[in-house]
Design goal:
alpha+beta, globular, disordered C terminus
């Protein structure tokens, strides 16, 4: 399942709903941060070489061999106090023009909008699962698309029920929600080169997108417990563009 086009800018009231203050908890908040210039510049040679290759598998093999220590250190720096453990480290390349980028390893097909289940938490406790940081190390914009509701609320609306003690994550959850809430909007958040997003992907219907891109999409992902960075002057946390 993918978002229905066309994409439109949010109204002022929609933007107020989407953009939260810095007090939002990591388990229910999407944030954008800027990477240090030295980290991004470290991949200059990899970006240049990738643009000279045309085969997707070949590009992935080349990029997967790049040193990632500085990127890992950056992710660890954003870990919550007292939590330095990280999982699922990986760097990957996607072609441009994809509405969604996650691939089912068994079928090789694109998954579409989905929810991760790395930690298998009960529905009422999904907001306590670790979240993810994903860094845009490529030359072009990429997008994080998501429905701005926690998974427990998706389940309640999709099943017309409130008792989360009986809630289960099933393959038809998003279909049930879409059938009952067909006009509910999907947010598309631009992640520019040298930026990263932090998102609770075990508690959020989401996927990445390269639909508006023209170059290879290079990104590095780490799962852990990452705090929400303090808002800078003039910068909205979770701003849509």
């Amino acid at each position: 399942m993918v978002a229905r086009e066309p994409w439109v800018l949010p109204s002022a009231s929609e933007l107020d709903t989407i953009v939260n203050g810095v007090s939002a908890a990591p388990g229910c908040c999407v944030a954008v941060l800027s990477l240090s210039s030295d980290l991004y510049d470290e991949f200059d040679a990899a970006r240049s070489m990738a643009e000279m290759l045309s085969d997707w598998d070949e590009v992935n093999r080349y990029v997967s061999g790049q040193p990632l220590q500085r990127a890992i250190e950056c992710a660890t720096e954003h870990a919550e106090s007292g939590s330095s453990q990280i999982w699922q480290m990986g760097i990957r390349v996607n072609p441009p023009g994809l509405p969604n980028v996650t691939v089912d390893n068994k079928t090789g097909r694109l998954v579409g909008l989905h929810c991760d289940n790395w930690f298998g938490a009960q529905m009422k406790a999904r907001d306590g699962s670790p979240n993810r940081i994903a860094m845009n190390l490529g030359n072009g914009d990429r997008y994080f698309t998501y429905i701005n509701l926690p998974l427990s609320r998706i389940w309640q609306l999709g099943n017309d029920a409130t008792d989360l003690s009986v809630a289960r994550l099933t393959g038809d959850l998003l279909v049930r929600f879409a059938e009952r809430m067909p006009a509910y909007p999907v947010v598309r958040l631009r992640i520019s080169p040298g930026e990263a997003y932090i998102a609770p992907t075990d508690n959020l219907i989401h996927d990445g997108s390269t639909q508006a891109g023209y170059e290879w999409d290079i990104y590095f992902t780490v799962v852990g417990r990452f705090g929400i960075p303090m808002q800078r002057p003039g910068q909205a946390v979770g701003e849509t563009r």
